[in-house]
Amino acid sequence: HIHSQLDEELGRFLFDRSSQKPYTTPLLNQYRQAQYSAAAIYELPFTVAESLAQKHKVPRDVFLKKIEPKMTAAEKLRLQSTAARTKGVEIEFDLSRAGLTKLALYILSLKQNVRTARADELQAALEAAANKTLARAPLSLGRVATILDRSRSATGSREKRNRPLAVALAASSLLRSAATEYRAFWTPAREEKSFEFLTYAAGQTALAEPLLDALEWRPDLIVIVSDGYENDPPQLVDQVARVYRAAIGKAETPEIVHMNPVFDADHYAPRRLGATIPTVGLRDAEDIPIMLGFAKFTAGTATLEELEQYLAFRVNRMLNSDGT
């Protein structure tokens, strides 16, 4: 624990709840009022108001309808399934305000028939989100291939459902916008739909064959987005990369980067595909411009000084961005 000196008002709020004296801080005063008035809870942030709604026994459908204007995009996304189970409640998700990865998560949370019916709208939203990301963090690439894992493990965990698949979808949208030429190799292979977001997670993780297909296309950069649990067959993709590099020569081999959207808690790091292919963690597709810089350092093609210069450049650009 720590010994911290609190100002008089915050100390009173935390340790003297019996006090009836109003607060000058609006949020604290709103919270005090909401203890006694159900109407006042809608002036609070959603996460604070939710517990008070239960205290006042406000019906769930009434609460969700009234609190929606206070919800963030992430909260709206998280509550989509809850709202769907609550009769008469539909939470509107603003496609234009969502970040690229959050948008991909939202799209994958929709049923297939809804995605199909709204396909043009959703595709336009993905492209706009990708362009907005690139406006904040410019990335100009040449010929790019991606190997995107949609095996069963891409469904993610119960807490983070579809997150690995969503990161792969968002990464594909971003790199397509950043590249002069682009090809996506989804794995396992199956008949492709008109729109990438109509895909789903199922089957085994097979990375070696799509890597061979990507190498045959002769790109400048190959990005593999996978949780690293290759099992069809296991540990073959790194051998393919190593043999190809030995046969063709390092200078002629395209840069290959593994971006892992899943943290391996057992090893305190993202799971690697092998020694030949550098691995970096990728929480959101929006981080790809920075992670490509880290990958060069991990692969030994960039010095620490170059990495520090690159990061300083990215920080300066971010701080001086107009936020568009």
Description:
The chain is of the alpha/beta class and 324 residues long. The protein is built from 14 helices and seven strands. A five-stranded parallel sheet has the order 2-1-3-4-7, sandwiched between helices. The chain has a two-stranded antiparallel sheet with strand order 5-6. Helix 12 links the parallel strand 3 and strand 4. The chain is elongated. It starts with 7 loop residues before the first helix and ends in a 5-residue tail after the last helix. The model has no long low-confidence stretch (mean pLDDT 85).
What is this entry, summarized?
By secondary structure, this protein is α/β, with parallel strands linked by helices. The chain contains 14 helices and 7 strands.
Strand order of the largest sheet: 2-1-3-4-7
**What order do the helices and strands follow?**
HHHHHHHHHEHEHEHEEEEHH
| Largest pleated sheet | 5 strands, parallel
What's the domain count? 2
Total of DSSP H or I helical runs spanning 4+ residues? 14
CATH topology of the largest domain: Rossmann fold
The gyration radius over C-alpha positions equals 24 Å
CATH class of the largest domain: Alpha Beta
Termini Cα gap: 41 Å
Q: In percent, how helical is the residue content?
A: 40-55%
Average per-residue pLDDT, rounded, comes to 85
Quaternary organization: single chain
The secondary structure category is alpha/beta
Low-pLDDT runs of 5+ residues are: none
Number of strands: 7
Architecture of the largest domain in CATH? Answer: 3-Layer(aba) Sandwich
% residues in beta strands: 5-15%
Give the overall silhouette. Answer: elongated
